[in-house]
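During the no-cost extension, the postdoctoral fellow (Dr. R.K.) reprocessed legacy sequence entries with the updated structure-token encoder. One reprocessed record is reproduced below for audit purposes.
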Amino acid sequence: MNKTAEKEIDKITQLYGTAYKIVNNGSAAGYLVDHSSCTYIIDKK
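Re-encoded structure tokens follow.
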């Protein structure tokens, strides 16, 4: 992930009160992401 994308993701996670952490544990995928899980209901009104 490039630094610009990471900054944008950090802004969004702060706005929504969520969290994530990139984990390098030797996965075949290259890296894993631990993250919070939430459901948001958004009303257009």
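The chain has a mean pLDDT of 85. Residues 3-16 form the longest helix (14 residues). The remaining legacy entries will be reprocessed before the final report is submitted.
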